[in-house]
Amino acid sequence: MNSTIAIVDYDPVWPVLFEEEARRIRAALGERVLRVEHVGSTSVCRLAAKPIIGVVLVVADAADEAAYAPALEAAGYILPNAASGIGKVMPTAGLCRLRSLVGL
Description:
alpha+beta
């Protein structure tokens, strides 16, 4: 299978899209969210990148999916696949990806 990866110029809307997703995640999980971080090349100002917003979500115990998975799924998110470690976040623009879900 042949696929093309698009690298585009930095877009100042990327941090805005991340903040919108971070708000949605915090609204869905409340105090269960310990941190939400913007990661990857779109988090670096003025760096050309694949136009996919990388998100890392930190919860107390990532293994305790019952504590957070239903709320995230109800908000429209798909959790990272155990095999790939990557799941798509389903925002309106479709540009965000939940890169990892970490427990402390």
